[in-house]
Amino acid sequence: MKGNLFTYIKIGVVISLLLALGYMISEVPGSTAIDFSSVRRNLGSTAARTPEPMIEDEIASGPEALAAIQARTKYVNEGRARQYVESATTDYYQGSYEEALRRLERARIYDPSNYSIFKLSGQIFFEKNKFRKAFNDWERANQLPNDDRTISRDLDVLRRLIRYSRTEMDRLQRTVNKEPDNRVARARLKELEEQMRD
């Protein structure tokens, strides 16, 4: 009988603890839940933030405050873009080209007029033998204000390489048309077409 009483007491204590735990959980407000679904590796949270009271006061004060807010937003976006470019540069030197391109794409969203974004993405595409994409990015970098004199040289070299590739593609196409069983010419033509694809 004494063993059964001890078992009933243990069951009663466990039930009491479960009820107390259920009560404590039900009393936690819903606003304390954190949504981690928007957190990405090394990118921070994209969750919406509550506006700062000072900004709301500035909005009410007129057009000069709006210009100040826009300047602050531009500064913040340029800073974020710089961080992405720095991370992409590190990825590039480590050989993680896909990760670097992903970060550069993200940087373009924040600052589409950043020269370094287009210069680095062009370099990555060039090293991956994606000549058309490299040309497009370097051409865009050349259009943006910069002090880099090597971009014109790089574009000139790439133009010559593209011109040579087109000439070679035409020659290989004629060879394949004359000799449909020529596997070497067919493989080289396919390789060049892949390099020239956008």
How far apart lie the N and C ends? 84 Å
Poorly predicted segments: 30-48
Order of helices and strands: HEEHHHHHHH
Rg, rounded, reads 30 Å
Mean pLDDT: 79
Could you say which structural class the secondary elements and strand pairing correspond to? mainly alpha
Main pleated sheet: 2 strands, antiparallel
Give the strand tally.
2
What fraction, in percent, of the residue positions are helical?
A: over 70%
Account of the 3D structure:
This protein is an all-alpha fold and 198 residues long. Among the domains are: 52-112, no CATH class; 129-198, no CATH class. Helices cover 76% and strands 2% of the residues. The protein has eight helices and two strands. It has helices at 2-27, 53-61, 63-94, 97-110, 115-127, 131-143, 150-178, 183-196; strands spanning 39-40, 44-45. It has a two-stranded antiparallel sheet. Helix 3 (63-94) runs antiparallel to helix 4 and helix 4 (97-110) runs antiparallel to helix 5 (115-127). The chain is flat, with a radius of gyration of 30 Å. Residues 30-48 have low confidence and may be disordered.
Q: What's the helix and strand layout?
A:
Layout: H1 2-27, E1 39-40, E2 44-45, H2 53-61, H3 63-94, H4 97-110, H5 115-127, H6 131-143, H7 150-178, H8 183-196
Antiparallel strand pairs: 1-2
Helix pairs in contact: 2-3, 3-4, 3-5, 4-5, 5-6, 6-7, 7-8
Keywords:
single chain, 198 residues, mainly alpha, two-stranded antiparallel sheet, 8 helices
